[in-house]
Structure to design on (321 residues):
């Protein structure tokens, strides 16, 4: 199994775009990064390049949203040819829009279909195909419901499961509310690892620190962090040493910003706006004197056309690292 799966950064819609991933890679060389969820329809019929990424982001996985084995196979083939390290199928998102497209968490009720999707993707892609799912959905909250799902999909050749340790409510709760309700059940994921010891099991949900990640790693193979890593990204600066055992010198926040400046210049020259990059970096100086001034200055001055890295350099003068 890939060492990078010991710690991964969750796919987060509107957050983990290519600029965010390039930034996170400056903080950790080893954590596995994920794209936002990309639907098969967007890839096959959309006008934009939804699979664009920088080779320096590697290792990076693409998360697909869909339920048609033929379309997923087409997208998996494209993703593999584009150079992604992994293809992940979203069986965890509870939003109404996703349900209408017949993918996301609702697919836990259709393990045979998910198995068909996995098999179809594995037939055309020579990279790992993985599944991210919940511990249950709606009234289906028994442990057996989850193990039946995992067992069926495992037989189709998937041996990597990322488990969000919270049941999904498909009716009555927004995706935002579903991040807090119902309660997390880590023990259920630990038990899944015991019962499927031959599989790689990563745990997701509510992991706020690397210390918590290390505690989980005593029971499972990997940890996926989400909002905590996005909102306080500098915690990733210790990940290579603490999680991966690599004796690398931790870079300062200023070093990280300096490393991003050439990237920003290159992207701006290609038409990107400064704010589309810097918005992912607003939390870099969290808990550092001047952090609020950093966020406010960038929020007020990085928007609009014609903004250059001079805005970032001026913001750096407001913080003490």
């Amino acid at each position: 199994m890939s060492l990078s799966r010991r710690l991964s950064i969750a796919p987060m819609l509107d957050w983990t775009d290519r600029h965010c991933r390039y930034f996170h890679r400056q903080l950790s060389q080893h954590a596995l990064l994920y794209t936002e969820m990309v639907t098969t329809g967007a890839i096959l019929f959309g006008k934009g390049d939804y699979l664009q990424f920088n080779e320096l982001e590697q290792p990076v996985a693409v998360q697909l949203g869909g339920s048609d084995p033929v379309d997923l196979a087409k997208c998996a083939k494209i993703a593999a040819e584009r150079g992604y390290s992994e293809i992940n199928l979203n069986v965890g998102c509870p939003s109404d829009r996703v349900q209408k497209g017949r993918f996301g968490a609702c697919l836990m009720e259709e393990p045979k279909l998910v198995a068909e999707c996995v098999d179809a993707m594995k037939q055309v892609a020579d990279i790992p195909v993985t599944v991210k799912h919940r511990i249950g959905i709606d009234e289906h909250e028994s442990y057996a419901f989850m193990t039946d799902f995992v067992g069926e999909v495992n037989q189709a050749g998937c041996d990597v499961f990322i488990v969000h340790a919270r049941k999904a409510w498909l009716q009555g709760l927004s995706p935002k509310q579903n991040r807090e309700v119902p309660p997390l059940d880590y023990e259920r994921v630990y038990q899944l690892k015991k019962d499927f010891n031959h599989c790689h099991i990563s745990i997701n949900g509510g992991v706020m620190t690397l210390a918590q990640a290390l505690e989980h790693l005593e029971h499972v193979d990997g940890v996926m962090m989400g909002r905590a890593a996005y909102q306080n990204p500098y915690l990733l600066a210790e990940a290579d040493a603490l999680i991966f055992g690599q004796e690398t010198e931790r870079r300062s926040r200023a070093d990280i910003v300096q490393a991003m400046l050439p990237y920003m210049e290159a992207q701006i020259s290609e038409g990107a706006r400064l704010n589309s990059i810097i918005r992912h970096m607003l939390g870099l100086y969290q808990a550092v004197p001047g952090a609020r001034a950093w966020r406010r200055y960038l929020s007020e001055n990085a928007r609009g056309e014609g903004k250059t890295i001079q805005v970032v350099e001026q913001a750096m003068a407001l913080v003490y690292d």
Remarks:
- DSSP finds 14 helices and eight strands in the chain.
- Residues 253-316 form a domain with the Four Helix Bundle (Hemerythrin (Met), subunit A) fold (CATH 1.20.120.1460).
- The first helix runs from residue 18 to 27.
